[in-house]
Amino acid sequence: MIPSVTELPRLAIIGAGLSGLTLAGELDGFAEVTVFDKSPRVGGRIATRTGECFQFDYGAQFFTARSVAFQNYLKPLIATGRVAEWHPRVITLGDDRKSYRRDWFEPHYVAVPGMNTLCQLAAEGKNLMVDTAIASLEKTIAGWLLRDRNDTCHGPFDWVVCSMPAPQSAALLPSAFTGYEQVTNTAMLGCYSLLLGFAEPLQSLWQAAVVKHSPIGWLAFESSRPGRTGGCGLMVHSTNTWAEQHLDSDSRQVQRALWHELERLMAKTLPKPKYSRLHRWRYANTVPIPEATDKATPEVSPEAECLMDEQLQLGVCGDWLLGGRAESAYLSGLALATGLKQRF
What we know:
With about 350 residues, the chain is of the alpha/beta class. It is built from eight helices and 20 strands.
């Protein structure tokens, strides 16, 4: 039963990626929700950027749908053309630059006209506060107060949910939070995205490539995605391991290293790009969670879809809880919404 308007609890979600936006949408009519994000736009790592005459999906490259819940979520988006299946010519590049075809055995989807469309649609009608970086939480008699980096106070809220990468969530959560050890023990790895736009199309027998034994882990021509417009854009992703080794390196050095490796992989000298931009993702992927050492801490399953502390009225959701995919973000937000509805 949906509570009356006067009974609606006030809930703050910190993080406007797919997980937080899914939670906000599922709680429509069950809570008065405000979504905060430090960035000027929603989406998190489901990101699209335009520059010159080029468009780049420089975060998540695609998503799959293995659960019935996510398949059902995508059905109306596919029907209206906002999500489409991507059929690129995919290869694997190895050490010796020899390539072999790589078949996908399940549908791979992209949002149209850009990957961030998925989150833009989810954000429609939501109470959003972007460009607002929350720096601290304070529990008061009236509820939770959120203070941003400009020292502006927001609230009070009955519930607060962190929908951010684990290290960023850990920085805000109190140590008394159930599942705090899981959050703090979750390490995340970085990634570099190199966005390259060329005046003329590059000749290539492939449209996307998984790269082995290289600082580069993924390559994709943006024009191969459904519904894309603009010039010849090439998306270059580093591996997480290489990015971790160079997180504090000078960005120009990182860009040069990736450029030289790209030329080596393609076995030719490439023309000077018309557009070039490097983006560092500090938290892009999750590493395995180590075993807990504090036996007094309540155990939380590593496979938990979300975390919730009913006493403190705090929650956590995010793709990192389920493996780091876009579908994981959706399922985590959905799971927390289900749990919260039972308590409202």
